Amino acid sequence: MCGGVLCSALVAAQPPAVPVETILVVPDQVDIDITAVGDLRADEQVTIRAEIPGRIAQLNFSEGQAVKEKQLLVKLDDAEYVARLEESNAAVKLSEHSFSRTQDLYNKKLSSRQAYDEAVALLEQDRARQSLERVLLAKTRIEAPFSGIIGLRYLSQGAYVRAGDDIVEVVKVDTLKLDFQIPERFLPQIQVGQAVSLQVDAYPATSFPGKVYAINPHLNETTRTASLRARVENPERQLLPGMFARVALTLKQRDQAIVVPEQAIVPQGNQVYVFVVSEGKAKRVPVTLGVRLTGRVEVLSGLSIGDELVVSGQLKLRDGAQVLQLPKPSPQE
Fold it and tell me: What is the pTM of this model?
């Protein structure tokens, strides 16, 4: 007990409680990422070329059109190849008759073995030519090798093409390949199936997910980097082959991590601290920091889930000071 004057003096001597804002420490997920730059490539890309010479009779596509696998794209004038096949068919038919007669005579001992062998060779030669003419005729029809998007064509209908001339490109873009490189020190933490995300200048606010599916088995001897290839789904066709990409590769995920706002950290010399509230008083706690994120930082030690962490007003605190916890803002505020 104390007298009225003495008690009033003691109360007046106590410093006022420091108003602070706090949050409850809860578990969070932390992704340990490395960054790189890469290039997007088509999942499949091929230049359609003529395998035989001829005049383009039909172009059965429009530039930028989606096409299906085996869809007819180009038809060359086949009149000459049809005639050559008919000629070879006639030659085979004649050879078959000749062989039949020679075989009959040979069996009756009325023809020599040489004549029989020559008839066999002629028939085989004519059949081989017939097969070749069938193949050449089939090459007058040029089909899409896979489903994709038609590019810009190089020739017009009616143009004469030689074997090997470019006609148009077909590109598969529903799925893209992402090629990028990482330093060799990260290789032990890389495996097929690892998640990546990428951003491109065309859509700076959008992150596109992908997964690593191939790792080059040898390093670049100059840069000592490993080449990785990821597959990126592109159903909306926003991404295009040739785009430059900024890549983030997730090396590790920690599901029960403690992540706090950066402003809660109080540096002092070579050590960093936070303040927690316990029984109405501030307690200064040294912490060890981990990964830094945008506006947040991981705490590896010093904090526990369920602690009341001071996030505002800590600069006026000292260890053991009385605090006044301000109401937490409602979700609507």
Answer: 0.66
